[in-house]
């Protein structure tokens, strides 16, 4: 059995160099999220902060924050969709100040493949919801989420799957 298959997902992603991680396809996606530092190492540990994603990739995601979060901090991310709330644990891999907007760009790596899968699923939910709104406008009538889901899956699921897996 390959040694990498025994490693937790976060260790695999962390063992990849920064240059190689840039090869992961980043998908721009602006969705709401809440996060909090769950380990020691930050003045903001335990405080829940609300923000939005900038992009997502196979290994993690990027979001903006008002306060810096030290590298290697463990955080919990909550991502809502309609009446559901998805929880994901991640590790901060970089925190860079955007001097123009006086905000920080926080890059995180998912702890487990399961967390990466959840975020991919959330991304699909948001894309299908946007597709539903577009189809409703195009057709001049309300399209159900089920109908939009079936059409989106038929049209785009193979292409979407290739972006990540």
Q: How is the secondary structure organized here?
A:
Elements: H1 3-6, H2 9-15, H3 18-21, E1 27-28, E2 32-37, E3 49-56, E4 60-65, E5 74-81, E6 84-98, E7 103-110, H4 113-139, H5 145-164
Antiparallel strand pairs: 1-3, 2-3, 2-5, 3-4, 4-7, 5-6, 6-7
Please describe the structure with a list of short key phrases separated by commas or semicolons.
single chain, 165 residues, alpha+beta, Thrombin, subunit H, 5 helices, elongated, disordered N terminus
How would you sum up this structure, described in words?
With 165 residues, the protein is of the alpha+beta class. It has a single domain, classed as Thrombin, subunit H. Strand 5 and strand 6 form a beta hairpin. It is built from 5 helices and 7 strands, in the order H-H-H-E-E-E-E-E-E-E-H-H. The chain has helices at 3-6, 9-15, 18-21, 113-139, 145-164; strands at residues 27-28, 32-37, 49-56, 60-65, 74-81, 84-98, 103-110.
